[in-house]
Design goal:
Radius of gyration of chain A: 19 Å
Oligomer: heterodimer
CATH architecture of chain A: Alpha-Beta Barrel
Distance between the termini of chain B: 59 Å
Structural class of chain A: alpha/beta
Number of strands of chain B: 7
Structural class of chain B: alpha+beta
Strand order of the largest sheet of chain B: 4-5-6
Strand content of chain B: 5-15%
Order of helices and strands of chain A: HEHEHEHEEEHEEHEHHEEEHEH
Shape of chain B: elongated
CATH superfamily of chain A: Divalent-metal-dependent TIM barrel enzymes
Number of helices of chain B: 11
Number of helices of chain A: 10
CATH class of chain A: Alpha Beta
Number of strands of chain A: 13
Largest sheet of chain A: 8 strands, parallel, barrel
Chain lengths: 310, 259
C-alpha cells in the first residue's frame, strides 16, 4: 500500500511548517519541577513539549499542570514508547491510550521515533536502532500508517541517535527516512543533535547526511546536549544524554539547517541533570535569536527582491 | 537467535555476548558500543525505581538500593511504556530477595511508597456536595443502609512494622529521626489537592475503608470493622472509630458520594 501523499486525510490539514498553533519559535520540554516558575513568570516561549507516556495516568497534578500550561501555550506531545521500529505488532492498548491523550489535549503536534523499545511484551525504556533494509522499511511504513490512522493525524518521526550499525543494512539512514516519509506522508522531526551524534559515531559527513534528508517535510527541530565518550579505537563516541547545554557544533548545524528550511518550531531538550528554569529558557532564547534573525534575514532578502523587481 | 530477540537477551545480561550482525565504521569493538544501550536500559530503569522508592533507598543506602533495583530490573523488566506502573511487583520481589533480608520492613515500606505514587496519579473526583451530605444526615435512620463513594486515590496499608513512622521520618529536609521499626502500624493514603497524605489510622479504620471500597453499606462496613478490631489485640491506635473515620473522610475531601 502506497497511498499518494495528497490522498491521506491528514496531509492537507497539516502542511509542513504551518501547524496551526505551533509557531516557528523555540519551546522547551515541560518538567514538573519547572511548572511553578513557568506559571508565575509567564516566560515568552513558543510552545511546550511533553513525553506522552508520562501523562498516561488517570489524574492528579500531572494533568492539572499540563491543562494549565496548555491553556497558555501551544503544546507538542512526543511519544517515546510506541516502538514504531519494532518487529512486534504495535500495542493496540497503548495506541488507543495515546489517541485518548491527544483527544484530551488537542496538541498542535504529535511525534515519535524511528526506533524500537518493546519486544516480546517487554518495554526496554530506550530507543533501540533498526537495520536499514527493505523488510524493516516495509514494517515501519505499515506501523506508521496504522499510527496515523488510529490517531487521526499526521505525525512527525524523529531521526535517531545510534551507537552501532547493522552489517545487513542495505540503505543509508537518510534514504530510509526519505522513503518512509514519501510513502506514509508523515513529517520529519529533525533532531539536529541526533544527526550530529550519529554522524560522528559512524564516521559520516553530517552536512551530506542533512542535505540528503527530506528537509521540506521537517515540521519541528530538536536540539539537545550530548556526552562525549570514546570507542575502543579511541575515536569519539557521542552519547545522546539530554543532560547538558547544546554543543556549539550543534548550534552551527542548526543555523546551517535553518538557512535551508526556514524557521521551524524548535525544542530544547534537557531531561537529565535538569537546570533551573532560567538556564533552560536561556537555551531557548538562543534558538529564538537564530530563528528571528533568520526571519529578519528573509525579510531583508524579500525587500531586496521587491526593490530589484520594482 | 538473531534480531531483536538477541538484543533483548543481551540488554539485561552483561555476561552474554552482544547480538550478531553489528558493525562499526572504524573497526572498533561493537561490544563496547553496545554497552551504551545496556547502560541506558538498566540505569534508566534503576533510576525509575529510585524515584518511586526514595524512602526505601534512604533506609538501605544508595549502594544497596542499586543492588536491589538492578536485580529487580534484570528479573522483571517493565511490561508497559508507562513507567508510573513500573514498581508494582518490587515489594513482592524484595520480600523474597536475600539481598533485602537485613531490612524485614522493606517490602511494606515499598508498598507504602507505591501506594503514594498510585494516589498521586489516581483519577480526579469531586468531593461530596455539602447539600447531599446534609440531606443524608437529616435522615439518620437511613444512614446504615447508605453506601459511601470514596475518592479513587484513597488506599489503606497495614504492616507489622512501623513503616508509616519510617516514611514520615524521611519527609523533611533534615536528618531522619530514629524510629523503632518493630511495632505494627496502619495508614490511609490519599491525595488532597496536589499533595499525597499518609495518615496514621487503626487497623479497624483500614478495614472500614476496604469494606466500603468493595461496596458494603455504612452499616455493614461498620460492623465488619468493629468486629475485626475487637478480634485484634486492640492495637495502640485504639481499634475502629467510626466518628474519626467519617471526620477524616470529610476533612480530607475524599468522600465523593452517598447513595
Amino acid at each position: 500500500m502506497n497511498p499518494r501523499r495528497d490522498s491521506l486525510p491528514w496531509a492537507a490539514a497539516n502542511t509542513p511548517g504551518t501547524h496551526p498553533g505551533l509557531p516557528p519559535r523555540a519551546g522547551v520540554g515541560l518538567k514538573p519541577a519547572h511548572v511553578q516558575a513557568i506559571l508565575e513568570g509567564a516566560p515568552d516561549l513558543g510552545f511546550f513539549e511533553v513525553h506522552a507516556e508520562n501523562y498516561l495516568v488517570a489524574g492528579g497534578p500531572m494533568h492539572a499542570d499540563l491543562a494549565r500550561i496548555a491553556k497558555r501555550y501551544p503544546l507538542s506531545i512526543h511519544g517515546v514508547g510506541l516502538s514504531i521500529g519494532g518487529a512486534d505488532p504495535l500495542d493496540p492498548d497503548h495506541l488507543h491510550a495515546l489517541r485518548g491523550l491527544l483527544d484530551c489535549y488537542q496538541p498542535a503536534l504529535f511525534s515519535e521515533h524511528l526506533a524500537w523499545s518493546t519486544h516480546g511484551g517487554v518495554f526496554w525504556n530506550d530507543l533501540l536502532p533498526v537495520p536499514y533494509d527493505r523488510a524493516t522499511l516495509n514494517r515501519v511504513c505499515a506501523h506508521l500508517d496504522q499510527v496515523q490512522e488510529t490517531l487521526g493525524r499526521r505525525i512527525l518521526l524523529e531521526n535517531p541517535a545510534t551507537y552501532v550499525e547493522f552489517a545487513d543494512s542495505t540503505l543509508s539512514e537518510a534514504a530510509f527516512i526519505t522513503e518512509l516519509v514519501a510513502r506514509t506522508g508523515c513529517g520529519l522531526l529533525l533532531d539536529v543533535n541526533n544527526a550530529y551524534v550519529s554522524c560522528i559515531n559512524h564516521g559520516r559527513d553530517v552536512l551530506a547526511y542533512l542535505a540528503a534528508l527530506p528537509l521540506a517535510q521537517v515540521g519541528e527541530v530538536h536540539l539537545a546536549g550530548f556526552h562525549r565518550d570514546t570507542d575502543s579505537s579511541g575515536d569519539p563516541l557521542l552519547i545522546d544524554s539530554h543532560g547538558s547545554a547544546v554543543d556549539e557544533a550543534v548550534w552551527s548545524l542548526y543555523a546551517w539547517t535553518l538557512a535551508r528550511i526556514g524557521p521551524q518550531p524548535t525544542l530544547i531538550e534537557w531531561d537529565n541533570d535538569l537546570p533551573v528554569f532560567d538556564r533552560l529558557h536561556a537555551e531557548a532564547r538562543r534558538a529564538d535569536r537564530l530563528l528571528m534573525g533568520l526571519e529578519a534575514g528573509l525579510e531583508t532578502a524579500g525587500d531586496t527582491a521587491r526593490r530589484i523587481s520594482a | 537467535m538473531s534480531g531483536p530477540a538477541a538484543w533483548c537477551a543481551a540488554l539485561l545480561d552483561p555476561d552474554r555476548e552482544v547480538p550478531p550482525g553489528l558493525s562499526t565504521w572504524n573497526g572498533s569493538d561493537p561490544a563496547q558500543r553496545f554497552t551504551v544501550y545496556r547502560n541506558n536500559v538498566t540505569v534508566s530503569l534503576m533510576e525509575a525505581l529510585a524515584e518511586t522508592f526514595p524512602v526505601c533507598q534512604a533506609m538501605v543506602g544508595a549502594p544497596h538500593f542499586r543492588d536491589l533495583a538492578r536485580a529487580f530490573v534484570r528479573r522483571h523488566p517493565p511490561r508497559s511504556p508507562v513507567l508510573a506502573r513500573y514498581g508494582h511487583g518490587f515489594a513482592d520481589f524484595i520480600a523474597e530477595c536475600t539481598l533485602a533480608a537485613p531490612w524485614p520492613y522493606l517490602p511494606d515500606l515499598a508498598r507504602l511508597e507505591l501506594a503514594c505514587l498510585d494516589a498521586l496519579h489516581a483519577a480526579d473526583a469531586q468531593p461530596l456536595d455539602p447539600d447531599a451530605l446534609a440531606a443524608a444526615l437529616g435522615r439518620p435512620e437511613t444512614l446504615p443502609s447508605l453506601r459511601l463513594g470514596l475518592h479513587p486515590s484513597l488506599a489503606t496499608l497495614g504492616s507489622p512494622y512501623a513503616v508509616v513512622s519510617l516514611w514520615a521520618a524521611h519527609q523533611g529536609d533534615g536528618p531522619a529521626p530514629a524510629v523503632n521499626p518493630d511495632r505494627p502500624e496502619q495508614a490511609w493514603v490519599l491525595r488532597r489537592g496536589r499533595a499525597v497524605l499518609v495518615l496514621p489510622m487503626s487497623g479497624g479504620d483500614c478495614r472500614f475503608v476496604r469494606a466500603l471500597q468493595v461496596g458494603a453499606t455504612l452499616g455493614e462496613a461498620t460492623a465488619t470493622a468493629a468486629a475485626a478490631a475487637s478480634d485484634e489485640d486492640a492495637d495502640a491506635a485504639g481499634g475502629f472509630d467510626l466518628t474519626r473515620c467519617l471526620a477524616v473522610l470529610l476533612r480530607e475531601q475524599v468522600l465523593t458520594g452517598i447513595t
